[in-house]
Amino acid sequence: MSQYHIKNLEEYFQVYRKSVQNPEQFWEEIAEENFIWRKKWDKVLSWDFSKPELKWFEGAKLNITENCLDRHLHIRGNKTAILFEPNDPKAEAEHITYKQLYERVSEMANVLKDFGIKKGDRVCIYLPMIPELAISVLACARIGAVHSVVFAGFSAAALATRINDSDCKMVITSDGSFRGNKTIDLKGIVDKALEDCEGVETVLVAKRIHSEITMQEDRDYWLAPLLEVAYKDCGAEIMNAEDPLFILYTSGSTGMPKGMVHTTAGYMVYSAYTFKNVFQYNEEDVYWCTADIGWITGHSYIVYGPLANGATTVMFEGVPNYPDWGRFWEIVAKHKINQFYTAPTAIRALAKENLSFVEKYDLSSLKVLGTVGEPINEEAWHWYNDNIGKKKSPIVDTWWQTETGGIMISPIPFSTPTIPTFATLPLPGIQACLMDENGEEITENQMNGRLCIKFPWPSMARTIWGNHQRYKDTYFSAFENKYFTGDGALRDATGYYRITGRVDDVIIVSGHNLGTAPIEDAINEHPAVAESAIVGFPHDIKGNALYGYVILKEVGEGRDQNNLRNEINQLITERIGPIAKLDKIQFTSGLPKTRSGKIMRRILRKIAGNDTKNLGDTSTLLNPDVVDEIIKNAL
Ligand code: WT7
What we know:
Layout: H1 9-21, H2 23-34, E1 43-48, E2 53-58, E3 61-62, H3 64-68, H4 73-76, E4 80-85, E5 94-97, H5 98-114, E6 122-125, H6 131-143, E7 146-149, H7 156-165, E8 170-174, E9 177-179, E10 182-184, H8 186-194, E11 202-206, E12 220-222, H9 223-228, E13 239-240, E14 244-250, E15 258-263, H10 264-279, E16 286-289, H11 296-308, E17 312-316, H12 327-335, E18 339-342, H13 344-351, H14 356-359, E19 368-372, H15 378-388, E20 395-398, E21 432-435, E22 441-442, E23 447-453, E24 463-464, H16 468-476, E25 483-491, E26 497-502, E27 506-509, E28 512-515, H17 516-524, E29 529-539, E30 543-552, H18 561-575, E31 584-588, H19 601-608, H20 625-632
Parallel strand pairs: 4-17, 6-7, 6-8, 7-14, 8-11, 11-12, 16-17, 16-18, 18-19, 19-20, 30-31
Antiparallel strand pairs: 1-2, 3-13, 4-5, 9-10, 14-15, 15-24, 21-22, 21-23, 23-25, 25-26, 27-28, 29-30
Bound molecules: 5'-O-[(S)-butoxy(hydroxy)phosphoryl]adenosine.
C-alpha cells in the first residue's frame, strides 16, 4: 500500500486534492498497485445518482479471497492471520497462520459446494465470534456465494425475517455461544427461526459449547466431521467486479431491516486502502478491533481490510467485563496489541470502573486508538486518551455506516491533529458536504447541516436487496444528486466535521442502530397496547437509551404496570433482541400529534430528555393538552 500511504498532513492534502480532481485515476492507481486481478477493468467508474447506478472497475475479474489469502502464502504463510482469543481467559489463544487459514477456508468452501451451494446463492451465517465465523465468511466469498451474517444476539424472529428476505438456502451456526459466564442456545434460536423459513435446506453446526441440541435429520449436520475429510484446496470462483459479495442488514427508520448489498472489487479496494491508512498498520503489528463480525465494522475491519493487507487481526469471543473489567487491557498486554479499535459505549462503561483495572497492565505496545459507531463525548475521549493511550497514541474517531462499507471521515494518525468529538476530515476520495433545509449546499464553515456525499466511492452499497426503489428513496431522494447519510454534522472553521447524530428516526443505542418502527410494532403486538412511540434519551453508558410512550386500550383496569412493562420488554426481546429493550416505559392517555396525525417525536424526545423548557410551539397540535399530562407523569 505504498501509493497514497499518508505520512503527514501535507501529504494528506496533496492526496486528497488529487482524489477529488481525478477520482478515476486516483482509485485506478490504488487498485493497480495493491491487488491481484484475474483481469483488469475496462472502466474505472460509471455512475448516476438519480437511478442510482454505481459501477466500479467494470469488466474486472477477481476473487477477494485470493487477495486476502493466496497471495500472502509465499511471503507470510507462517504469519498469524487470525489471533483468536477465547471467552475463557484461561483457555489458550489460537494463532491461525495465513497458510492454515487458507486451508480451513478451502475445507469449508468444499463443504459448502458439497451441499450444492453455488455462485450467487445466499448463505446465512449466525455464529458467535469463533474462527468458524471468519472462515465461513471467506468460504462463501471463495465460491462466490453471498454471505449474510446475522449478529448472534438477534432473536429467532429477527433471524427469520433476514433469512427469508434474502432467500438463504443454508444457515451456518453453532450449538451455542459463550458470553462471559453465560451460554446462549444458538441452535435453539435457529430451530425456532426455521419454523418460518421454508427455503433453508441445510444447517451446518459448529460445536462450541458441547450442549445437548436437537439435530433434524437431512437438514442439520455437524461441521467438524465434514471439514475433517474435506480437501485443503479449493479453487477460487472468478467473480465480476460488481458481483455481490455480501448482504448485511441495517435498521431503517421504518419498515423491514434493509439488506445492504456490497459488491466485490470496490469493497475490497476501499476496505483495504482505508485499513492501511486509518490504522497506519505495519507488517509486524498486531491489530485488534473489538466489534463483532455480525456488524459492518467486523466485516471491513476484522476480516477483509486487515486480511487484504496481510495483517494479524485479533478475534475476541468474550465480553469486556469477564472475568472482570480488566479483560480488554489484559488482552492488549498479552498480545502486545498495536492498534485498538472499539466503540464509545465500551469506553464509557470501562471508564466507570476503577482505574486499577487499567493500571495493572502494560499498555505500552499501543500506537493507535480508534472509536466507531456513535459520537464520542468529550469525557470519554479524554479518559481514553489519558489512561489508555497515555497521551501518546492518536485517537481516530472514525465516522461511517453499514451503507458506506468503509471509514469515510477520520483523522489519519500522526498526520491529522485531533480534537475531541471531531471525526475531522474526509478520507481521500470522499467528497463530503453539508446541506441546509432548503436543499442548498452550505459552503461556509462553522455551520450545521445534513451530511451528504457528492461523489461515489468504491465501497458504497449498490442497492437494498430486493428493493432498489427503497434504496433510491432512502439515500438519493432527500437531496438531488447527493448520497444522504441520515446524520447531522457541524463543520468548524478549519473544515473539521463533528457528527452530531441522526436526523431521522434511527436511534443509536450502545453503538447499535435501531429503527423506532420495528420496536413500536413489537410493542403494539401486546394485547393491552393501543399505540406506542419510541424516542431516545441521553444515557451515561449507552449514549442513548430508549424511552417508550405507550397508550393502553383500557385505562384504569388496575393492571400491574410493572408487569406490563416486563411483558412489553419480553416481546421486544422476542421480536428483535435484548439490545432493543426499553429503559423507561411511560403509560399515557395520548400522544402529541400534528393535524395530519403524525406523532411529534420532537416533543417526546425533549420530555424524555428532561428538557421541557423549550418545547416550541405546541398550539398547532391536534391535542395540546396531552403534552401537560405527559410532562406531569414523565419518568
Ligand atoms: C451510524 C451508522 C460504521 C460502523 C458502525 C455503525 C453513527 C458511526 C460514528 C462516529 C458519530 C457515528 C452515525 C451513522 N456513527 N460512527 N465516529 N461519530 N456517529 O454502523 O450501524 O450502520 O450506523 O452510526 O449516526 O449514521 P451503522
